[in-house]
Task: inverse folding
């Protein structure tokens, strides 16, 4: 288990560094591309990805999760899962090509035929690397995975920006979307140096397929719940509306995705190895959960308070219509930070069926809300999205932790100090914005108000609420130094 601890620490540090680089690359590419391309360019691609994104959920059929979650798995079983994934990828690519005319007709936009056909290749590239990536995750080789992710993003970003500068318009975004899975799959194949053998279907593989099927069904339902509004906006409000909504949504989701990607892969792999060790399972989960919350709350606050400056600073003045949408979506950052870790918990314990039941309840509620907000355009849909997710948060927590080693009280204890620190820091940062920032440029004002918010938040969290020791111990764990508790025991 000590080896598991060290692998978890090293993996967490590697993922943290990689996601930091990922964050700056993605934000940088958004800032550059938003100034070169028009909202309609983003909207055209967003129309297609809202549809083809459903197909991408089937590319691994949840089998990568099954590979990581199993205590023991053979090379023969992984090979069989690989061929299943590859076959599904081929079928999905063919199906995507077949529905290209339907997508173009649905949106009344002929250009979407070619966009859908080209994006179909990404489904095959993704499927070809699923099991190789799962092998690296199972071995907790997160440094290698992180490097592959960064290289994939750098290549796609450089090519995409180059194409945008040369005037290729929305095709720059299409090629970017394809290059990420292509480069990533090449990377995991070269890193694992694993060649699959002949497939053999037997009882254990069927069991993993049932587990993977439940994971996929859950992902499908959640995808519909989180993305159906984009289909509706594209269909009834057009490319420009979905382009503006999509950029606000993307900017909000960059911190969510980066934090979740940093924590979820490492947490799920580690927790899966600790299913029978309840005390350590609980300790690992709550430490990871507390860290994610502590990082997320100031981001949520900044997005809500400084929406105007963030949109103008990151995207430019031609995206001013995205400001109210961005502000309305800001609370979802916190909601996802609180709710997403419930998936680590339930998947690691093999309780995927409960996740599916939760998704079955959430999805129709979200879809109904979108139809209510749709007549009011992107702002109405954003309000519906944010309101329903906020209302879902408490029932989701209670349902998820029921019958596990984690209690609702544990969750409340993890949330209380970061939330209290933000409640104090927010008015201080907003006051600085109102009284001292009006004469500054957007970028200077954003740096000032962000610095005040972070300084006040950290001062409250680490010193006033007495959480300094807890977070320093987490930091020392990442760099391999002894904790405060260990030092005191050694001196005794």
Result:
């Amino acid at each position: 288990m000590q080896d598991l601890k060290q692998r978890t620490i090293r993996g967490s540090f590697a993922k943290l560094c990689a996601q930091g680089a990922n964050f700056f690359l993605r934000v940088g590419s958004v800032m550059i591309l938003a100034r070169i391309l028009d909202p309609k360019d983003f909207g055209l691609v967003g129309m297609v990805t809202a549809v083809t994104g459903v197909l991408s959920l089937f590319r691994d059929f949840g089998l990568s999760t099954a590979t990581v979650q199993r205590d023991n798995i053979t090379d023969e079983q992984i090979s069989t899962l690989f061929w299943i994934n590859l076959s599904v990828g081929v079928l999905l690519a063919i199906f995507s090509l077949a529905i290209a005319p339907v997508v173009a007709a649905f949106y009344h936009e002929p250009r979407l035929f070619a966009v859908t056909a080209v994006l179909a290749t990404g489904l095959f590239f993704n499927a070809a690397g699923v099991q190789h990536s799962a092998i690296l995750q199972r071995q907790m080789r997160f440094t290698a995975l992180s490097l592959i992710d960064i290289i994939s993003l750098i290549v796609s970003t450089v090519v995409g920006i180059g194409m945008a500068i040369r005037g290729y318009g929305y095709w720059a975004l299409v090629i970017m979307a394809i290059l990420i899975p292509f480069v990533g799959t090449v990377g995991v194949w070269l890193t694992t140096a694993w060649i699959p053998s002949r497939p053999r279907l037997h009882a254990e593989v069927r069991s993993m397929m049932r587990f993977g099927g439940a994971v996929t069904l859950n992902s499908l339902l959640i995808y519909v719940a989180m993305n159906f509004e984009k289909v509706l906006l594209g269909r009834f409000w057009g490319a420009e509306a979905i382009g503006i909504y999509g950029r606000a949504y993307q900017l909000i989701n960059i911190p969510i995705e980066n934090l979740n990607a940093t924590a979820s892969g490492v947490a799920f792999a580690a927790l899966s190895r600790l299913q029978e060790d309840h005390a350590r399972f609980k300790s690992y989960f709550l430490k990871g959960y507390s860290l994610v919350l502590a990082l997320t709350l100031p981001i949520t606050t900044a997005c809500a308070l400084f929406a105007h400056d963030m949109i103008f600073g990151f995207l430019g003045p031609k995206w001013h219509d995205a400001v109210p949408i961005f502000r309305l979506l800001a609370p979802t950052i916190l909601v996802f930070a609180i709710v997403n870790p419930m998936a680590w918990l339930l998947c690691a314990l093999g309780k995927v069926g409960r996740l599916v039941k939760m998704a079955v309840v959430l999805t129709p509620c979200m879809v109904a809300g979108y139809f209510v907000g749709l007549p009011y355009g992107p702002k109405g849909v954003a309000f519906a999205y944010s309101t329903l997710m906020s209302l879902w948060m408490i029932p989701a927590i209670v349902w998820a932790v029921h019958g596990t080693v984690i209690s609702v009280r544990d969750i409340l204890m993890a949330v209380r100090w970061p939330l209290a620190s933000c409640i104090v820091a927010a008015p201080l940062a907003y006051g600085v914005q109102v009284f001292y920032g009006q004469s500054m440029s957007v970028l200077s004002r954003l740096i000032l108000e962000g610095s005040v918010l972070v300084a006040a938040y950290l001062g409250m969290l680490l010193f006033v609420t007495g959480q300094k020791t807890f977070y320093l111990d987490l930091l020392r764990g990442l760099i391999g130094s002894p904790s405060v508790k260990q030092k005191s025991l050694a001196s005794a």
About this structure: The chain has one domain: 2-406. Residues 104 and 112 are 5 Å apart (CA to CA). Residues 2-406 form one domain. The two ends are 25 Å apart (CA to CA).
